[in-house]
Amino acid sequence: MKADTRLFGPIEIEDEKIIHIAQGIIGFPDLKHFTLIFDCERETKSAIHWLQSMDDGDVAMPVIVPGELLPDYRPTVNDELLQGLGELTPDNTYILATVRVPENIEDISVNLKAPIIINTDTNKGSQVIVEDDFAVRHNIYSLIRDGQKKAGE
User: Could you tell me if 132 and 76 are in contact, meaning their C-beta atoms sit under 8 angstroms apart?
Assistant: First the structure.
């Protein structure tokens, strides 16, 4: 699948790397096809990746794997919300959280209340509202800063 993206220019992504999100995501219900963009050229691993729409090249949002920064993050999700994804196991479940990057970088936050759950076997995903009392804007500045310091040691 090809897309002319605002951030990455023209890209071509193999069909098996396209994530299908049937209901779209919050704010973009008509966008159904996405891919993950990683910065493979960096010497250190970045916590932030990009969820790039393949339907609209202008739409790309920063995301993280919340469990990498917050090891205790285990959201409770109503099984009905995940029915269309196929059988989920610990090995094929990939959880992403959208990142909000404001002008003041110290206010960077992640939405833990509405993660995107992906079945990596089927490449189907869904953004869900979790039952837990997680924040929509959970500040992660110190976690990213401390992770970068640790990587530089």
Answer: yes
116 bridge partner residues: 96, 127
- Prediction pTM value: 0.88
Chain-centroid distance of CA 75 in Å reads 15
Query: What are the tens digits of pLDDT across the range 1-49?
Result: 988 999 899 999 999 999 999 999 999 999 999 999 986 555 556 778 9
Q: What is the CATH number of the domain that holds 91?
A: 2.30.290.10
Contacts of 62 (CB under 8 A, 6+ apart): 48, 49, 50, 51, 98, 99, 101
Residue-range definition of the domain harbouring residue 33: 2-152
- Compute how many other C-beta atoms are within 10 angstroms of the C-beta atom of residue 124: 17
